[in-house]
Amino acid sequence: MPSFPSPFGSDGGDLFDGYDEFVAENLPDPGRFLEGHDVLAGADHLAFHRLTRDCFEERTVYDMTFDYNLTRLNLDTRHGSAGFRYAVDRVRAAPMHNQSEAVNDRLAELEATYTETGDITDETAEAAGVESNPTGQRGGASAGSRSTDAPF
Q1: Are 137 and 131 in contact (CB under 8 A)?
Q2: Which member of 26, 127, 140, 143 has the greatest number of CB atoms within 10 A?
Q3: What pLDDT is stored for residue 7 in this prediction?
Q4: What is the mean pLDDT of the chain?
Q5: CB count, 10 Å around CB of 17?
């Protein structure tokens, strides 16, 4: 995504670790969702982080305050308690996120289905039942004027 100047951001060469460096002290502690799981470190963390960066770039997940791909937060030495940690076989939303309880319940259901059957069909994923707007309701004051195929 092309960037535009941010009053808070810069190239900050010495403020960021390199994408090929694993500096554990500049990453957040794994947290309770990753307890009991194999937390990725070293080359494994770096490889998964590159994959995440590419996915975020494709979907234009950017921090507009600092003007960078949000995965760069892991490399920003000014924010040691923020960023991403990865583990084997576990994905959950943190409690601070909108509808985290519903999202985590649905993820647990999908995980159980996959463990039992080895597959998650499109119908199973589509029936997730988690709304995407902050109120958790379909529609809203301006919903009637929006196209159903809008990209956001």
Answers
A1: yes
A2: 26
A3: 46
A4: 75
A5: 15
